[in-house]
């Protein structure tokens, strides 16, 4: 496929999320299908978007975010899996929570943290919106 001469058809889809689909057959245009994100009342301003990106820059918080993107975990479980101390994990979770990037559900005395996938998924769009408003 010659990228310079092959036409590309870009198609939004409400059914394909969260995946990006790229297909190409010789002799036809390449098709890129991307997820169309739902409208949201939660349109953060530039300061909020900047804070969220800044919080996710830290490698320790990135490790925690990857773990809680898959399943809800307690701080103790995160400490064990990440090799960090419980106070370190708690500080990282506090920063992620302050930025609105995690949700917390309580089960008795246990708190389970999960990454707010929709907010993370929308960061690029939120940044563009914030820059132009």
Automatic annotation (TrEMBL):
Residues 41-133 form the HTH arsR-type domain. It comes from the Bacteria. Pfam families: DUF5937, HTH_20. Keywords: DNA-binding, Transcription, Transcription regulation. This is Metalloregulator ArsR/SmtB family transcription factor. It comes from Streptomyces caniscabiei.
């Amino acid at each position: 496929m010659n990228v310079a001469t092959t036409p590309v058809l870009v198609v939004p889809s409400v059914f394909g999320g969260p995946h990006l689909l790229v297909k190409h057959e010789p002799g036809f245009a390449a098709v890129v299908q991307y997820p169309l994100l739902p409208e949201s009342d939660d349109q953060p301003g530039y300061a909020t978007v900047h804070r969220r990106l800044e919080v996710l820059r830290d490698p320790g918080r990135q490790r925690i975010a990857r773990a809680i993107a898959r399943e809800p975990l307690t701080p103790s479980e995160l400490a064990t899996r990440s090799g960090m101390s419980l106070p370190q994990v708690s500080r990282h979770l506090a920063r992620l929570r302050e930025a609105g990037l995690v949700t917390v559900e309580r089960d008795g005395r246990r708190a389970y943290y999960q990454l707010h996938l929709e907010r993370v998924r929308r960061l690029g769009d939120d940044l563009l919106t914030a820059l132009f408003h």
